[in-house]
Amino acid sequence: xxxxVLIIDDELDLRELLKLTLAKMGIDSTAVETxxxxxxxxxxxxxxxxxxxxxxxxxxxxxxxxxxxxxYPELPIAVLTAxxxxxxxxxxxxxxxxxxxxxxxxxxxxxxxxxxALTLSPQSQTIATVDNPLLLGDSSLMRDIRxxxxxxxxxxAPMFISGESGTGKELAARSIHRQSSRGAAPFxxxxxxxxxxxxxxxxxxxxxxxxxxxxxxxKKGLFQAANGGTLFLDEVADxxxxxxxxxxxxxxxxxxxxxxxxxxxxxxxxxxxxxxKDLQEAVNRGAFRSDLFYRLNVIDIHMPNLRQRPEDIQLLxxxxxxxxxxxxxxxxxxxxxxxxxxxxxxxxxxxxxxERASTLCENNRIELEDLKLNPSxxxxxxxxxxxxxxxxxxxxxxxxxxxxxxxxxxxEIEKEILLDTLEQARWNKTEAAKKLGISFxxxxxxxxxxxxxxx
Length: 455
Known about the structure:
By secondary structure, this protein is of the alpha/beta class. Helices cover 45% and strands 13% of the residues.
């Protein structure tokens, strides 16, 4: 059956352009001029896509987005907005719009949007066909996350994923991509903190031969590599401010300029970003641009830490072990220890623990001693604790207790100083670093080395 699109616009010329474009793509269309006519058309006929102008004689596109989301949730709707009026477009995306186009409408972008929208599966079918989810867990938290992902995967809106290190932010991004209309196109992950600042623009946007020393040939950037698919910006908080400006322009204009090029290139990329840091706090202290933050954070998902879903530990452990070696099992004591472990490193730490234990165990059975768990992170109960206790830490009550070496003694003193300063600063690492007269990077390194970091 032919696909059918509903066009809502009061400009005759634009309606005719949209109808002609759709006809050339082999798609039927119905065109109306007002919100009232659009509602009537939706009630009388089934459509596969809506294209609506933002400004209409008796209302606006936001009303239609809200109406379709409540009454026809399976129907993708895209809005057309005046050039440069991105704020309204972002509002539409937050309400559930599939995507937006700026006027004057560029036909290649219009055709790409229509193609993407019409390849969407019904939401119920999407959920049913994902029989091998990337994000495992039977807890209510994980069921909610998977349900959110199934819903937001249908949109083209930028996504922001927050959560502690090791909670599965990249897996969530891959799951969104896989369930979206872009699922067959590339998924390109990049760790923003791992790219040297002087190479960042070239890595993201590519470069032309001879544009700088060492540029011996043309090179495509990450945006071009992800064209038609999804670009995942992990640890986006680590982007320097000058790169944030260029990224913002690429998002708004959907164009990039390779280093050394005189012309821009159109790109069709969905952005998903993530960080374990508090991005709002970075905005407040001027380390991250607020305008970029609001562009990236159109729809957000927060990944729960493993301590919040202990009922998933056994399922995850058994799944990870099966991937490592189907013959290996966990003893009852080992499993009980895992169930009472706080997992500061979340699922990633569980995976590392099991990988190490599987190489140490004998007779394909992991015993308690094979896990090599940090005793300070073991807990007999799951009652609320102070922050220092949640990290499995406490200050030494008697510094003269027997110690095994001078290094151990010095490490304990360093731990005590850091804990005292962090508690005085209410666990604000930036403030604690100032009190100690060291850099933020230095205090992070010391916390990680001493096992005091809860990120």
